[in-house]
Amino acid sequence: MRFSRSAVKVAILTAVFGTVSAFVAVPALAHGSMSNPISRIMQCFQEGPENPRSAACKAAIAVGDSWPIYDWDEVNIADASGRSREIIPDGKLCSAGRSKYKGLDLPRADWPATTMPGSGPYTFKYQRTAAHPGTFELYVTKPGYDPTKPLKWSDLEDTPFYKQDNPPVVGNAYQLRANLPGGRTGRHLIYSIWQRHWPDSGEAFYTCSDVIFP
C-alpha cells in the first residue's frame, strides 16, 4: 500500500515540477517547503528517498522510512492556529511533533547545508504546491547553537527576523525578502512557520533549513 501511494506521489510531483498547470490541477495534495535555503525534507526528496546520497538523509530514512519523504510539502499541523510553541515539543521542531517525520529531528552536524551571506538582504524561496493566504515567519538559531543536540525552541531567537503576510510569488515559489541577522558564523539553522489564516484554515507548515554563515 505504501509503495503504490509513493509511486502515485512521485508521478504527480514530477508533473508538478514540470508544468505550472499541474499546480492548478493538484492543489488538494500538497502545500510547500523551503527550497532556498533548502529544507531537510526537500533535500532528502531531491537526493531520492529510496537511495539518498548524504549520510544525514540516509539516517533520517533509516529512522523514519522512505515514504514520508515523498510528502515533502506536508510537514504540517492541521489545527495549529498560532499555537506552534505550545503544541510542538522541544526536540521535535523539524518534524512538527509528528512521528511520521521523526527522521528530520535527528541532531547531526552533517545535514547538507546552504552557505549564506554573513548579513544583509537575502531572498528566501518557499516552493509551493498549493497557495494559501497566511503569514510566514523565519527564525534563526542563536549564537552558540550546537547542531549535535536536539533542536529546542530556546535555541531559536525569540522573535522572527522576517514576518510577512502573503509574500509575493514568482513562478511557483513565495519570495521571502529578508534582512539576515548578523553576528553568526559556522553552522546554524533557519526555522520557518507558515501559518494559514482563518477562515481559510488554522493549518501551519514547518521547515528546518541547515545553513552555514561565513
TrEMBL record:
It holds the Pfam family LPMO_10. Residues 1-22 form the signal peptide. Coiled coil: none annotated. It comes from the Bacteria. The keyword RNA-binding does not apply. Keywords: Signal. Residues 31-211 form the Chitin-binding type-4 domain. InterPro entries: Cellulose/chitin-bd_N, GlcNAc_Chitin_IntDeg, Ig_E-set. This is Cell wall protein. It comes from Amycolatopsis orientalis.
